[in-house]
Design brief:
By secondary structure, the protein is an all-alpha fold. It folds into two domains: 70 residues; 77 residues, Cytochrome c-like domain (Cytochrome Bc1 Complex, Chain D, domain 2). It contains six helices and no strands. The longest helix is centred in the middle third of the chain and has 55 residues.
Length: 171
């Protein structure tokens, strides 16, 4: 993995910058009541704890980066499925350029899109075209399509004034 050398460098740099603390503590606590090994053990435990916390933080950062990669992959899979199944009616951006009779789904809430596709697939929601389209979708397809279309910018206008000014997205 390419993050291992970076992690090793960070741990090494952290340890190197804290070595001097052991010597400073020896100077301050160098009288006879404190033994050098006690100071060194305390310093080692403190540094060890900080290194452990740094490692946990680094691993959490790596996990977040991996989750971001998975998110991008899901969007690409959703885009691919949208090209295959949805674009003829809803368009790639979900703004239904083909006809006003198809709803604009770009920017719609992910949960709503998933619910709608599941409802068409199960027959709870009735529409002959959508029932046929949703019938072949797997649960993974539904989630990826919903994620893709929810990530698109909505093309809806808030008011007639915005629409008439030509500042409406999607015009």
């Amino acid at each position: 993995m390419d993050w291992l050398p970076l992690l090793a460098l960070g741990v090494t740099a952290f340890a190197a910058t804290n070595v001097d603390d052991a010597f400073v503590l020896l100077l301050f606590f160098g009288d006879r009541r404190y033994r050098a090994r006690h100071v060194f053990i305390g310093q080692a435990l403190g540094v060890g704890l900080l290194v452990l916390l740094s490692l946990v933080g680094a691993l959490a950062a790596v996990a977040l980066l991996a989750a971001g990669s998975a998110h991008a992959a899901n969007l690409e899979a959703g885009k691919s499925k949208a090209q295959e199944v949805c674009q003829a009616c809803h368009g790639m951006d979900g703004q239904s350029a083909a006809s006003a009779e198809y709803p604009k789904i770009g920017g719609q809430h992910k949960d709503y899109l998933e619910y709608s596709l599941r409802s068409y697939k199960s027959g709870v929601r009735k529409n002959a075209i959508m029932a046929g389209m949703a019938a072949a979708l797997t649960e993974k397809d539904i989630q990826e399509l919903a994620k893709y279309y929810s990530a698109q910018r909505p093309g809806l206008c808030a008011t007639d004034e915005i629409r008439e000014s030509g500042k409406c997205e999607g015009q």
